[in-house]
Amino acid sequence: MARILVINPNSSKAMTQLMAQCLTGIAANTAHQIACIELAKSPPGINTDENAKAVVPHIIEAVEQEKADAIVIGCFSDPGIQAVREQMSAPVFGIAQCAYLTALGLGGSVWYFVDGGHPRLGGICAICKSLNWNAGWRAIGQ
User: Fold this and answer.
1) Bridge-partner residues for 139, per DSSP?
2) Is the entire prediction scored with pTM above 0.85?
């Protein structure tokens, strides 16, 4: 039985509980153990580039302390994913990268619709476009 560690890189216990609830159906139908954790030292949300950079050492600390056969970064900007991959021999997945690849595999485009402005998405979309992926984002309110 493999242990899959799902890391909420912020400190929100409520968000971690929601993530765990979303995974109950999958957990019930697999022999693998799925563990969800949040990072108490992190900010309550990952809303800026500074937040994303600040949580990387906390993520690395968590994966070094927790035994896992696979790791999921449960934040849509995949903070620290490359740094974690460099530290771990286990596979590391980011929910954003998984979403992009699923959308593209289905023959679609990657578009973000967010509540208010989110400057970090411009950078993510630029990376997607550099790979010739159809990507963009739109703010839908303030």
Assistant:
1) 114
2) no
The enclosing H or E element of 101 equals helix 95-105
| DSSP states along 62-75 | HHHHS--SEEEE-S
Per-residue pLDDT tens over the stretch 32-44: 999 999 999 999 9
Sequence ranges of the domains in the chain: 3-97, 109-139
Picking from 19, 73, 74, 10, the residue whose alpha carbon sits closest to that of residue 43 is: 10
Q: Please name the fold of domain 3-97.
A: Rossmann fold (3.40.50)
Tokens of 97: 């990268």
Cβ distance 38 to 10 under 8 Å? yes
Tokens for 71, please give them: 């790791």
- Reduced to 3 states (helix: H, G, I; strand: E, B; else coil), residue 95 is helix
Antiparallel, parallel or unpaired: β 33-38 and 110-114: unpaired
Question: Using one digit for the tens of pLDDT, what is the confidence trace for 95-126?
Answer: 988 887 787 777 766 665 555 555 555 556 66
